[in-house]
């Protein structure tokens, strides 16, 4: 198929960026979206043009490294897929495709389509863990039974891949879906209880420090989330936050 | 240099306890004076960095991804083994040890494997304490499933995302130490060179991938937790960035590479669809618990399917060849990976392949769906349910077990695996070979350690499913944090290591020269052009079936490719700033050298064992013929300048606790 690609090019964090147009032909429908970009880059290199920089790694939808805002949607058309799982059969010959980076104040652009999402790491460092040292002497795993429905919900929250599609999609650039998934995983498990109050207070505080916006309940994040993380997590986080604010000793 | 594995004397089951008790301790005050570099933040790296920091060492951790959580351990699907015997099916530490030695085709070290089996139980306890959400049954206790090559259920799992959940657990432990300032994290950094001072590993040259700057980092010990080198085949289930550079630089500085030819070709991957494919996707081995593998029994049916005239669902049961069940009745579809892969290749080579390239077989869930549906109907008390009802109930059960895998398959292939069988074919997945390490996980460069997939020690010639996660976490949480003490206890008076020494200067200079050479090369072909050609050579001659003639040809071809690469590779852009093409060029340069050594290693190993299958050494039925008399050793290669002219050192493998037998899954 033949396509017209409009791609955001920006040489560095401080430089000015712009959309550039690249016609491309010979794209096959079995290619993934990123393979299509590889194919473009190969042609650009042959023409002496610097290839387009984008983040990617596992190419099977789990590492969360790939991003891209495609035709105005995080990870492009289709639900519950990352960009690397998007295939060209979703497009047709003659299409014009707009490819932009994930945009948010807390995700500064590094180059072209690559952004800095280290703000997510800093939110996690503010409390996204259970304080247990490696010893080999923790109690037997089966000594802590966890009701299956709680274990399943904790797992569903824990499947967040930290890609940032929720932030890129949100008109407020809010990271509430991400942060709430991380907080919920622990608040749903007995192991997470001792630090539950401090965790939610600290992680929400860090989220605010990073410059993410607030949540206005539009629900766009849930729709675009490649892992289907539920809005229920945001409700749980808000409840935990309120409870912790009123009852914490801090 | 004689290779001393330093496995402690004494009874197998007591070796680790005894050794741990005898390792000299480093006092808390002294630990604060000792720096450790950890390269890579997958399961081995994250867990090691976190544990060492908890113990009091100063840790610097490096990863090339934008966050430590994205290391490729994240993509592991099926599960993690542990000898918990929660299912009361006769499992034990000894049985896990035995299965691993046998599964590895008797080419791994008894002492290391037994230690792995021992600490496997602690891993599960540790992960649950960290909040890893493993699958549970309705009583709230942990659930298990079976994997290939074993007859017990010892695999703990979190749907098809076990690696993700375990890595997030290790990442959370790492985050806790980063927050405390005990670990300094360097993301988007890649190790470019190992710095050796007075014969000891004392630091690395790292590249800041965002700015392009080279940084000198010193330490008293360097831990390489940098994963495997499957990307030497270009197409593999590895992430795009997975590479051998850190390990290879250590190899060039004196660390021996052990058994580099031992590569795991995983039997259940989505087949190659076209020339522009960039990677292959695994379909978890756990699917073989319920899926049945088959091809048409009649060649004309296979041909009709290939040309689109026949649908697999229309082939009658008696005209299907469930070849694993036929050849290996005792283990059936759950034979180990090497056996399953070769059997698929055998059928496809004989003309029974079922996709347009002729390189695919079916993995069919129809029987499992009906079986589970029947059970559900019974539970629900349905009287005489119709086939349609049973099927619908069964699909729900299968979805709960494997939903994300089925979804992934459908996204990639546009075919619905609930309605028609999956198509699968073997693909490169894991490398058992790696840096040679002793019992303390130290390489032949004192102070340089290798953990996880980057070392060679536990899986012999074939790794069993769900054992990679076990080994990564065993090395990182429970082995290296203790064993580094033996080396570091002699270093308490050394003081901080300077980065101004001539050794750091020379290492940085070498890196700069390599980089400038690529930028100024003015060639005509992209890096991928060469990487793809390397992959073709490797897959055809150093892949599932190898021969003397093919391997010799491969060495010559790779040497020619290397020359062409340096003469004609084209890297655009500048050396400073973000330049992924430049980074890729450096990685591919090292993969080309490694490929040559792999071919050399395969050529010298005149036997078939595990994932290494030499066409000259097979039985009349096509089974691998091992040669214990002449090849029960680890090949450890010393770099001499040209990979194919490396010096071979042998570590003889002694088996005191298991009897060497022909591995039979019949």
What does this molecule look like?
- The complex is a heterodimer of chains A (250) and B (666).
- Chain A is of the alpha+beta class and 250 residues long.
- In chain A, 34% of the residues lie in helices and 11% in strands.
- Chain A has helices at residues 33-46, 118-125, 148-158, 165-169, 176-187, 196-209, 220-224, 232-247, and strands at 3-9, 18-24, 69-70, 73-74, 96-100, 109-111, 114-115.
- Chain A has a 5-stranded mixed β-sheet with strand order 2-1-5-3-4. Chain A has a two-stranded antiparallel ribbon with strand order 6-7.
- In chain A, strand 6 (109-111) and strand 7 form a beta hairpin.
- In chain A, helix 2 runs antiparallel to helix 6 (196-209) and helix 5 crosses helix 8.
- Chain A is elongated, with a radius of gyration of 20 Å.
- The mean pLDDT of chain A is 96.
- With 666 residues, chain B is an alpha+beta fold.
- Among the domains of chain B are: 270-426, Flavocytochrome C3, Chain A, domain 1 (Alpha-Beta Complex); 513-627, Methane Monooxygenase Hydroxylase, Chain G, domain 1, CATH 1.20.58.
- Chain B is built from 18 helices and 19 strands.
- In chain B, strand 7 (200-208) and strand 8 (214-218) form a beta hairpin.
- In chain B, helix 3 runs parallel beside helix 13 and helix 4 crosses helix 5.
- The longest helix of chain B is centred in the middle third of the chain and has 27 residues, at 387-413.
- Chains A and B meet through helix 1, helix 2 and helix 3 of A and helix 3, helix 5, helix 6, helix 12 and helix 13 of B.
User: What is the radius of gyration of chain A computed over CA atoms, rounded to a whole number of angstroms?
Assistant: 20 Å
Number of helices of chain B: 18
Radius of gyration of chain B: 25 Å
- Mean of pLDDT of chain B: 96
Biggest interface between protein chains, with counts per chain?
Answer: A-B, 77 and 82 residues
CATH architecture verdict of the domain at 270-426 in chain B: Alpha-Beta Complex
